[in-house]
Amino acid sequence: MSYREATFYFYTGTGNSYRVAVWMAGAVRNTGIDVTVRPIESARPSEEIGKGETALMGLVMPTHGFTAPRAILRFVLRLPRGWKTHAVVIATRAGSRVGSTYTPGFEGTATLLVALILALKGYRIRGTEAIDMPSNWIALHPGLVPDTVAGIVARAKKKAIHFMSSILSDRRRCTSWIVFLLGLLVLPLSLAYMLIGRPFLAKL
């Protein structure tokens, strides 16, 4: 795909989503494309997002309560119309390791919910992906040892770059519908987190 410009927005608490956004932006920049990377807090979408199929917009976010964070949903709902701008949506999730086996997190409805909103606003969805980064909910589990963190990060970087290579090669990459259906099963938990649990669990 012959993109002329790309804009990546990220929302991050501990840096996991930021790192993924930087990796993906770097993969695009290495092809000679002009790239902007911006946190949603300082974003100027109407000025930064290009129009048409030669522009790419990426959104990288953490998973909160098996769905997209409220801040991301507000941001996406306020975005200008896409005018066929291509878009990718990436969720970072809580990866870990048990023995020698890396265990994946679960993004639920996060990527497909945001992708649906973007599609309704006129963006052309080229891909959705979930990338495991080191789990940071250390009130729930012990902190991960450095070797585990390094292993998870290395796998994540490889996956992020491979995902972007597929998009730049004009291939669509979408999250499995099985994950989305499982996300619908836990949707009551997601809603409870967003409406009730967030003011309390977020403190952890």
Describe the structure in your own words:
The protein is an alpha/beta fold and 204 residues long. The chain contains 7 helices and 6 strands; from the N terminus they run E-H-E-H-E-H-E-E-H-E-H-H-H. Strands 1, 2, 3, 4, 5 and 6 form a 6-stranded mixed β-sheet that branches. Helix 1 packs parallel to helix 5.
Quick summary:
This protein has 204 residues and is α/β, with parallel strands linked by helices.
Indicate the proportion of strand residues: 15-25%
Shape: globular
Radius of gyration, in angstroms, nearest whole number: 16 Å
Termini separation (Å)? 42 Å
What percent of the residues sit in helical stretches (DSSP H or I)?
40-55%
Mean pLDDT over the residues: 90
Q: Count of helical segments?
A: 7
> Main beta sheet: strand number and arrangement?
6 strands, mixed
What string gives the helices and strands in order? EHEHEHEEHEHHH
The total of beta strands comes to 6
Main structural class: alpha/beta
Could you list the spans in which at least 5 consecutive residues all have pLDDT below 50? none
Features:
single chain; 204 residues; alpha/beta; six-stranded mixed β-sheet; 7 helices; 6 strands
Question: What is the secondary structure topology, with strand pairs?
Answer:
Blueprint: E1 5-10, H1 16-29, E2 34-39, H2 45-48, E3 55-62, H3 70-77, E4 86-98, E5 101-103, H4 110-120, E6 124-134, H5 146-168, H6 177-185, H7 187-201
Parallel strand pairs: 1-2, 1-3, 3-4, 4-6
Antiparallel strand pairs: 4-5
Helix pairs in contact: 1-5
